[in-house]
């Protein structure tokens, strides 16, 4: 019985450690190589993100938190884009493309919007299944922070300012 409790404790501790590593910014990893198909028909690759601080947001029109946070993401983009900040909103594969186009047009989203038709982009970025999931990528193309759920925007703005100041 004691061995079962010990093993369960070790498993919980290992899970917590992995979760802390992934979600609490204790390590930096290269953003996965991906090709984003944008609403305008062009494509962008992960390599194109280099040189800018980029917010990559996985979202869906059916996600109430995603829709609620979008004005804050727009405001963040507008606040920092002239300083070398970019935003890429990636709609999930299950989101009907017509809904995504309608949302982007009616809300006048000022940043790039991609549709992950095949689900391969979400899979490459850690098998994203929960929306919103937001990744902050530094100028070197490294993921420095991940948010599942709406970010704490004042904290996010501090991080963006810090990353923009890096050379």
Describe this structure as you would to a colleague:
The chain has five helices and eight strands. The protein has helices at about 1-25, 65-80, 95-105, 120-125, 155-165; strands at about 30, 35, 45, 55-60, 85-90, 110-115, 135, 140-150. The chain folds into two domains: about 1-30; about 30-165, Glutaredoxin (3-Layer(aba) Sandwich). The longest helix is centred in the N-terminal third of the chain and has 22 residues, at about 1-25.
Question: Quick recap of the structure?
Answer:
With 167 residues, the protein is of the alpha/beta class. The protein has helices at 2-23, 64-80, 97-106, 120-124, 153-165, and strands at residues 29-30, 35-37, 43-45, 53-59, 85-91, 112-115, 133-137, 142-148.
Average predicted local confidence, pLDDT: 88
Distance between the termini: 55 Å
CATH topology of the largest domain: Glutaredoxin
What is the overall number of helices?
A: 5
Oligomer designation = single chain
Beta strand count? 8
What form results from the Cα inertia axes?
A: globular
Order of helices and strands: HEEEEHEHEHEEH
**CATH level-four homologous superfamily name of the largest domain:** Glutaredoxin
Query: Structural class, from secondary structure content?
Result: alpha/beta
Low-pLDDT residue intervals, each spanning 5 or more residues: 4-26
Helix content estimate: 40-55%
Please give the radius of gyration in angstroms.
17 Å
CATH class term of the largest domain: Alpha Beta
How are the strands of the biggest sheet laid out side by side? Answer: 1-8-7-4-5-6
CATH architecture of the largest domain: 3-Layer(aba) Sandwich
Largest sheet: 6 strands, mixed
Q: Report the portion of residues in β strands.
A: 15-25%
Domain count, please report it.
2
């Amino acid at each position: 019985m004691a061995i079962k409790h010990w093993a369960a404790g070790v498993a919980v501790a290992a899970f917590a450690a992995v979760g802390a590593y992934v979600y609490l910014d204790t390590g930096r990893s290269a953003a996965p190589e991906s090709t984003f198909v944008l609403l305008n028909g062009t494509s962008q690759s992960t390599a194109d993100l280099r040189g800018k601080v980029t917010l990559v947001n996985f979202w869906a029109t059916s996600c109430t938190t995603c829709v609620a946070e979008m004005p804050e993401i727009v405001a963040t983009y507008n606040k920092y884009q002239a300083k070398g900040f970019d935003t890429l909103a990636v709609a999930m594969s299950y989101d009907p493309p017509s809904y995504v186009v309608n949302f982007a047009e009616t809300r006048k989203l000022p940043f790039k919007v991609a549709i992950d038709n095949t689900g391969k982009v979400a899979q490459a970025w850690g098998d994203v299944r929960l929306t919103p999931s937001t990744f902050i990528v530094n100028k070197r193309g490294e993921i420095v922070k991940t948010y599942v759920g709406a970010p704490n925007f004042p904290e996010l703005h501090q991080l963006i300012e810090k990353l923009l100041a890096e050379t």
